[in-house]
Write a structure and sequence with these properties.
By secondary structure, the chain is α/β, with parallel strands linked by helices. The strands form four sheets. An eight-stranded parallel sheet has the order 5-2-1-15-12-11-10-9. A three-stranded antiparallel sheet has the order 6-8-7, with no helix packed on it. The chain is globular. It folds into two domains: 50 residues; 355 residues, TIM Barrel (Alpha-Beta Barrel), CATH 3.20.20. Helix 1 packs antiparallel against helix 3, helix 4 runs parallel beside helix 6 and helix 8 packs parallel to helix 10.
């Protein structure tokens, strides 16, 4: 039908143009201008439906992150089922449930049991259940794709069982300190350069891909490392080995020192990509980072390089900004444009935090900016602030979301034939 519309357009244009030329010769210049105006009007009106149809998107990512931070949506099957049903009714098409957080897995894990001593987060609402299995089964039944989110990456609470049982796995600053403040919480970071740490994280990821019918696996900046860390004895020895005995630079922002560590993480990302694909070729590797400059300078996560290497099959860029000009400037960054020519690039939009209200008007405006630039879609952080933790009435927020997503639509999938 689309081809017929295009042929009709070309034939109609040719007929009207031939008529116009003959008319011009007979009636003269002034009359010709009037005729030209008529022809332009006809050309704009007659074939536009066919041209417009060919430009309408056939897919759009409409996602949301499900986390156990400031949310209990994962802690009861009935509550989880209701949430998924609500999302289906509002024409969402993908969810990103956290599966690795606070130093625990949120699904029964034999890998975690072996290393941490417990197979599951001790949260009472998760006991006797397999939350991930429920999300996958219920989500798929409702037409939602499910891509588990490896939320904490290499990060863990300072008082976690993982940190206590494997203190040698932790990395540090140049002064030997290890605590990383995230809000009021004390965190530590596993050393992403150690083979035993790398194997543990890989085993967790592969375990999910093997045991669950997931549509993909997602990482973010926490799959990197804060740039001020990496001065532990193992990493220093490794750097010296590769630099003829030279110590790492004192300045954690030294360009070569940043690049050396970022390249190590990139090599590990390549290893993870291969390990996942060896188990399930159609499992999407999704990355949800901050803008490139921040990800690289502060977390050594060089996602632009990952994308160029073909290691990222879906990018959901977190642009959590209130200022629309700043928001739009991030959309227009050259590395973002480059990624869009290869893979589906969607934008992560903040819908609020426990202590941060985001009005629906801001959300609608940002969605419009994303659509105006023809990105692959949007994902909201996070579920609880879509209509629960908010100052606006629940029904009004849901009505607005229904207006944003008025009809069902499939999510873009690079492995299922998506084209830029």
């Amino acid at each position: 039908m689309m081809q017929i519309g295009k042929n009709y357009t070309r034939i109609t244009q040719k007929i009207h143009m031939n008529w116009f030329v003959k008319w011009w010769c007979k009636r003269g210049f002034l009359a010709g201008l009037m005729a030209l105006s008529m022809v332009v009007t006809m050309l704009l009106s007659l074939p536009l439906s066919a041209q417009t149809a060919s430009r309408l998107p056939t897919t759009e990512l409409r996602g949301v992150w499900l986390t156990n931070i400031d949310s209990n949506v994962l802690f009861e099957k009935q509550r989880l089922d209701k949430a998924l049903q609500n999302l289906k009714d509002l024409n969402f098409n993908i969810v990103y449930p956290t599966v690795w957080n606070w130093g625990w897995t949120l699904y029964p894990s034999q890998v975690a049991k072996r290393v941490i001593g417990k197979e599951l987060d001790p949260e009472p609402g998760l006991q006797g259940r397999d939350m991930l299995k429920e999300v996958v089964e219920e989500g798929h039944e409702k037409g939602l794709a499910v891509i588990p989110w490896f939320e904490f990456g290499f990060m863990a609470p300072a008082d976690s069982q993982l940190a206590k049982r494997r203190p040698q796995w932790l990395t540090s600053r140049r002064d030997g300190t290890q605590i990383w403040k995230e809000g009021t919480h004390d965190r530590v970071w596993l050393n992403p350069f150690r083979p035993d740490v790398q194997q543990f994280v890989q085993d967790l990821i592969v375990e999910i891909v093997k045991n669950y019918d997931v549509d993909g696996i997602q990482f973010d900046d926490h799959f990197g490392l804060p740039a001020e860390l990496g001065y532990d004895s193992y990493t220093v020895a490794l750097y010296k080995k590769e630099h003829r005995g030279k110590l790492p630079p004192k300045n954690p922002q030294d360009a070569e020192w940043l690049r050396w560590r970022a390249n190590k993480i990139t090599n590990y990302m390549k290893r993870i990509f291969k390990a996942v694909k060896a188990v399930k070729k159609d499992c999407i590797i999704s990355v949800a980072p901050n803008p490139q400059r921040f990800s690289y300078d502060f977390y050594l996560a060089d996602w632009a390089k990952w994308e160029r290497m073909g290691l990222v099959e879906e990018l959901v860029l977190q642009i959590y900004r209130n200022d629309l000009k700043v928001f739009n400037s991030e959309l227009d960054r050259p590395e973002v444009k480059a990624a869009r020519s290869h893979i589906p690039v969607s934008i992560g939009i903040i819908s609020g935090l426990k202590g941060k209200f985001v009005p629906m008007q801001q959300i609608e405006t940002q969605v419009k900016s994303v659509r105006d630039r023809k990105f692959a879609g949007v994902s909201f952080f996070f579920y609880e602030t879509l209509w629960n933790l908010t100052k606006e009435p629940r029904l009004e927020r849901q009505a607005s979301l229904r207006g944003i997503f008025p009809t069902p639509m499939k999510h873009p999938n690079l492995l299922a034939g998506w084209k830029p």
